Amino acid sequence: RVLKFNTATGSLADLTSAGVTATAFGVANSAALFTAFDVADQTELNDLLAWTRGWTSSAKSAKRSWIMGDILNSRPIAINYGARGSYTKTNPDLRLLVGTNAGLLHLFKGDDGSESWAFMPKELAGLLSVRRGNAESSDTVYGVDAPPVIYRYDANNDGSIKSENGDKVYAFVGLRRGGRAMYALDLTDPDNPVFLWKIDNSTAGFSELGQTWSTPTVTKIRGSTNPVLIFGAGYDTANDDKTLQSSSTTNAMGRGVYVVDAVTGALLWSATPGAASAKNKQVTAFTSPMAAPPTVMDSNGDGYADRIYIPDVGGNVWRIDLAGTSIPSTDHTNWRVLQLASLAESGHSGDRRFFSAVEIARAIQNGTSFDALMLGSGDRSNPNATDNSDRFYMIRDYQTGIYTTNPPAKPCGTGVTDPRCSLPLTNSSLYNASADLIQVGTEAEKVAAKSALSAASGWYVNLTAASGEKSLATSRTILGTVYFTTFSPGGSALNASQCVPAAGTGRLYAVNLFDASSKLDFDGSSTLTASDRSVVTGSMISDTPSIYAGSDRVVQLILPPGSVPTTGSIFREGSQSTGRRLGLQTKVPFVNTETYTPGQEAGRFWYMPDSR
C-alpha cells in the first residue's frame, strides 16, 4: 500500500519505518516521536506502522481481517479524470476520495475499488495506537471525520485532467470531530499526490478555528487570481453539554468565517470577535460557533462570489456582502456582516441549532423577486434528543443584490427605509404554516392564512411528526418543491449484546416553496392534505437527497439504502439494499390543462412518473 503523511517541511513522506523519523515529524528526538505515536520504542512503532498498513505485526506473517476504518461524517466524492492514460471518454478514469476514522484520507479507483493511496495527517499519529488497542468503550474514536471537497479545473474543457494542459485538481478536507485543522492536497496526478498546506488553530490569524465541521466552499472572489476557500470557524465542544442552551453557552472558538487562498492557504479575510486587524473584521455579535458549511452566492452571474450565508449553532443566520472590487486590506467596511435572522427561543424547546447549509432558490411571487433561504434546525451533536422543538424555515431575502451602502447612520425610525432596519428576523416575523390551512382550511381560513403569509417574511413548519424530530441535512429545491429529510430518535434502548443502535424514524418531506403546502400524493389517496407533506423512508438518519439527471433527461432524487416508503406509488426502481428513486419529472411535457398557480413555471408542466 502507498501510505503517506505530511512532514514538518510541508511535503509528503512514506508512512513506513524508514520514512517516519523525528526530523520528518518535526520533533526533537526519537523519544518525542514515540510519544507522538503513543509507543514505547522503535519496535512498538514498527509494529504499529505495519498494523496501520494492514498486517497484524511487523513480522508481516498475517493480514488483518478488516483494514478500513469507519466512515461516519465523511462522504465519498467522485473525481472524473476523463481520458487519462489508457482510459477513454467512454471509460474514464474515476476516483473516489473519502476520509475514515482510522485517521486516513483514501483515494480509490472507480473501476475496481483498489486503493491508489492513503494520507494520514501527522497530527493524528496518536490515534493509531487507540485504534489498534480496540478497547471496549462508548467513546467513538475520530480521525478524518469530515467530507472532502474538490476543485477541478479543466483548462481546455476537453473533459480530461492532464497537467501538461494546465489542468488542476485540488482536494480540501477538515477533521470535524478529529481535530482543529484543514488540509489541502494537489491531486492533479491521482497517483502522485502533492501536499499543499495545512491550517490549524496555531496558524497565525486562525486562533478562533474550532473543530473543522464546516465543509469549505471553493469559489472565486474579485481581487484574487487563485480560487479561494470559504468556511466557518467550526465547532466548540462546549455545546456538547446537553444541560446548556447553545445560544447562551460561553464559546471560546468557532465564532467566525474564514476566506483563504485555496492554493497557498494564506488568510485573505476573516470575520471573528477577535481584534480588528489588516485581515480580520471584528464582529463582536459572533458568539456561537459556525459549524455549518457556508452558502456562497454569485447573484449577477459574473463568476465572482457576491454574498455568503452561514448559520450558527445559536439559532442565527448571517449574511456577508462582498462589496467592492478587491480584497479588503485595512478597510473592512467594503465587506459587510449582517444578522439576517435570530430563530432561537427560550428553554430547551427553543434551543434551535443550525448545522446544515442554507439552501438558496431564486424566486418571483406576485411580481416581486426574492431569494428564498431554506434551512432546518436540529442538534447534529445530539440526534437522540427529545426535548427539542425544531422547525424548517423558508426566509425571503428581498435584497437580491449586494448592499453597496453602509447601514443607516442614524437610528432606524421615521423616514428610514433601509430594509436592514427590520432585521434580524425572528420567529414572529414568519408565518406558522404548520397547520397547512392554505391547503386544507375552510375558505375563511385560507383567505386569512394567505393574508398572514403575504405579510410575513417567510414561513416555518414545526417538526412534530414524532417526538424529537429534527432536521439534520440541507434541503434540495426542484421546480418549486422543497425536499428535506428529518430524523426522530427511537424509543427502545440500545441492545447491549449487539452493536446496533436503537432504531429511529427517517422522513422525506416535499413541500411547496411558497407556502409549505403538500406537493406529492405520498399516501395515494388522490387528495393532497397535510399528511402528504412527508413519508417515512426508514429508520436511519438520512442525508440530503442526491439529484440524479440521467441521459433520458428524467430528474430523480436518490434516497439512501434502507429507505422503505410506506407507499410505493411514486417510488420506483431499486430495493431496500440499493435504495429508491423518487421520480420528479419526465422529458415530455403533457398538454397544459391546468390553471397556473404560484410555484409553477409558466409553459412547463410535467407529470409524475408512477404506477398509476
Q: What does it look like?
A:
The structure is a single chain. With 612 residues, the chain is mostly beta strands. Helix content is 8%, strand content 28%. The protein has helices spanning 22-25, 30-37, 42-53, 127-133, 437-440, 443-455; strands at residues 3-6, 12-14, 77-80, 94-99, 105-109, 115-120, 149-153, 168-174, 181-186, 194-200, 217-219, 228-232, 257-261, 267-272, 280-282, 295-297, 307-311, 316-322, 335-342, 359-365, 368-376, 391-397, 431-432, 458-462, 470-471, 476-478, 481-488, 505-512, 534-538, 546-549, 555-558, 571-575, 579-585. The strands form 7 sheets. It has a 6-stranded mixed sheet, with no helix packed on it. Strand 26 (476-478) and strand 27 (481-488) form a beta hairpin.
What is the end-to-end distance? 53 Å
**Beta-strand percentage?**
25-35%
Report the count of strand segments. Answer: 33
Q: Biggest β-sheet, characterized?
A: 6 strands, mixed
Which bin fits the share of residues in helices?
A: under 10%
Strand order of the largest sheet: 2-1-6-5-4-3
Oligomer designation: single chain
On the 0 to 100 scale, the average pLDDT is 87
Structural class: mainly beta
Instruction: Point out poorly predicted stretches.
Output: 564-581, 583-612
What is the number of helical segments per DSSP (H or I, 4+ residues)?
A: 6
Give the secondary structure arrangement, pairings included.
Layout: E1 3-6, E2 12-14, H1 22-25, H2 30-37, H3 42-53, E3 77-80, E4 94-99, E5 105-109, E6 115-120, H4 127-133, E7 149-153, E8 168-174, E9 181-186, E10 194-200, E11 217-219, E12 228-232, E13 257-261, E14 267-272, E15 280-282, E16 295-297, E17 307-311, E18 316-322, E19 335-342, E20 359-365, E21 368-376, E22 391-397, E23 431-432, H5 437-440, H6 443-455, E24 458-462, E25 470-471, E26 476-478, E27 481-488, E28 505-512, E29 534-538, E30 546-549, E31 555-558, E32 571-575, E33 579-585
Parallel strand pairs: 1-6, 14-15, 23-24
Antiparallel strand pairs: 1-2, 3-4, 4-5, 5-6, 7-8, 8-9, 9-10, 11-12, 12-13, 13-14, 16-17, 17-18, 18-19, 20-21, 21-22, 22-24, 25-27, 26-27, 27-28, 28-29, 30-31, 31-33, 32-33
